[in-house]
Specification:
Layout (H helix, E strand, L loop, with lengths): L14 H23 L3 H16 L3 E5 L5 H6 L6 E6 L2 H13 L6 E5 L12 E7 L8 H11 E12 L7 H20 L5 H11 L4 H10 L2 E8 L4 E7 L2
Parallel strand pairs: 1-2, 1-4, 2-3, 4-5
Antiparallel strand pairs: 5-7, 6-7
Function: Methyltransferase required for the conversion of demethylmenaquinol (DMKH2) to menaquinol (MKH2).
GO molecular function: demethylmenaquinone methyltransferase activity
Protein name: Demethylmenaquinone methyltransferase
Amino acid sequence: MSEKVKPYKDSQLNKKQQVAQMFDNISKEYDGLNRVISFGIDVKWRKKVVDIVAKSKAKRILDIATGTGDLAINLAQTEAQEIIGLDISDGMLEVGRKKIAEKKLSDKITMTLGDSENIPFEDNSFDAITVAFGVRNFENLEKGLAEILRVLKPQGTFVILETSVPTKTPFKQGYKVYSKYILPTIGKVFSKDRSAYSYLSESASVFPYGETLNNILRQIGFSNVEDLPQTFGVATIYKATKL
Ligand SMILES: C[S@@+](CC[C@H](N)C(=O)[O-])C[C@H]1O[C@@H](n2cnc3c(N)ncnc32)[C@H](O)[C@@H]1O
């Protein structure tokens, strides 16, 4: 089980409520700040996720923790007929709905308020499920992953994109300086919510990655689990299927 890092140290709310509140707070600035803090590389990583899903020829896709919908929008380039974005932050979904309407994709993509740990869909409903930078925010990682396995169709494809920690010198040291000092400072200067970016970097530093996350996926019941580190290991794409 991942360590429980929460956004607000003095809040009585549980992690899920705090996470929803935090993303509501930063929803309007999220897209802009995201590009800055990742130097725009997140766009390239999401494209790789789309390529994996496209190969699976999925027709119905669930994008969990969809946020402002960037991955859901990119997934519209595949042969999917229906894409559903699920998130617990209505603020993030609202920004996403506007982008989807502007791109005239509202007939293909639906943004739904809902929790990954209690997914409001039947068993075996989706050909592919994606989560980009979402799993580390789950209150209960194992419960969220078990729910994903439940709603994924047999032979379906599951893809996670998540931050990870570089293990090789000098990237390891560079990443430490960036996540401990630079990222929280950018957050404090540019964000409406001063603690949000400290939470995002702290949660990234303790979240399981690589073989540890592969093993959690296997324990939950996923098959053909594989991790594909990106950009010196600062992010990793995980692929898995349901037998
Ligand atoms: C860092 S954002 C990622 C958004 C988007 N996937 C992207 O790639 O930009 C994380 C999102 O996870 C959502 N989230 C966190 N816990 C969740 C849960 N239990 N169920 C659904 N969404 C959740 C948050 O509300 C937030 O919008």
